[in-house]
Amino acid sequence: MDVDNSTPHEFVCEITIENFPYAVLTEFLQEPQNAIRIHAWDEEDCWSGQLEGQELANLLESTDQSWEEFCTETHRAFTSGRPYAVTSERKSRAQKPVLTLSWSRSSGSDGGAVDLGSLVLSKITLSGEAAIRAMKLALKHSTKLTGKRKSLTESLEKEKGGFREALQNAKEIGPVRQAEYQKIVSVATLLVNSKADYVKDALSGDAPA
Questions:
Q1: Could you please report the per-residue DSSP string of the chain?
Q2: Which part of the chain is the XRCC4 N-terminal domain (predicted)?
Q3: What are the strands of the beta sheet with 46-51, ordered from one edge?
Q4: pLDDT at residue 12 tops 50
């Protein structure tokens, strides 16, 4: 099956932000192959553009981790001469702060990146940390196109222990945490089962060697 090696993986997930885990995102950005595109708006304004991983990590570290300052600093970064497309649009004052993250991964050891297209999950709301975990899970399994094949179910089952442990660290082991965990698995499943049949085949073990 033909695979487009010229386009990197790209996932898009819309996240309603309450207490955004800047440290988690900063850690994710330490990997040089990860890049972030931001589309963020507060109650009034909307800015969008792209920042490279380390540059965004530095930006996050320079804020006091408040949503307002993050939006302000992001807008300043986009309008300070960097060659990024910047858009601004008016939003209703009733609009909750939303951060849309999309990140791409360059070619890995398999010799090429796979174009999965974009999947916008506007009806599933996760905390920032849970959404990032779901993205990382999806990214991890979508790149298993060579070597030993495992079914999506088996792969997700192996991840459950790690996710469950992380969610229980806050000692809130109850229906809310269990529901959050189920959302993580659901989002990751939707992402890896997005628009590319050859990715589904690879994850189910049916792809050609």
A1: -----SS-EEEEEEEE-SS--HHHHHHHTTSTTEEEEEEEE-SS-EEEEEE-HHHHHHHHHHS-S-HHHHHHHHHHHHTSS-S---B-----TTPPPEEEEEEEE---TTSS---------TT----HHHHHHHHHHHHHHHT--SSS---HHHHHHHHHHHHHHHHHTTS--SHHHHHHHHHHHHHHHHHHTSS-HHHHHHHHT-S--
A2: 22-121
A3: 9-16, 98-105, 34-41, 46-51
A4: no
Instruction: Give the model's pLDDT for residue 9.
Output: 33
**Residue 60 is part of which domain span?**
9-204
Q: How confident is the model at residue 209 (pLDDT cuts 50, 70, 90)?
A: very low
The answer to whether the predicted template modeling score (pTM) of the entire model surpasses 0.70 is no
Q: What is the pLDDT of residues 63-105, one digit of tens each?
A: 544 544 554 555 555 445 433 333 333 333 333 333 344 333 3
Domain count across the chain: 1
- Contact assessment for residue 3 and residue 112, using Cβ atoms and an 8 Å cutoff: yes
Asked if 14 and 100 touch (Cβ cutoff 8 Å), the reply is yes
- Convert the pLDDT of each residue in 28-41 to its tens digit: 455 554 444 444 43
Q: Is residue 209 part of a domain?
A: no
Q: Is residue 1 part of a domain?
A: no
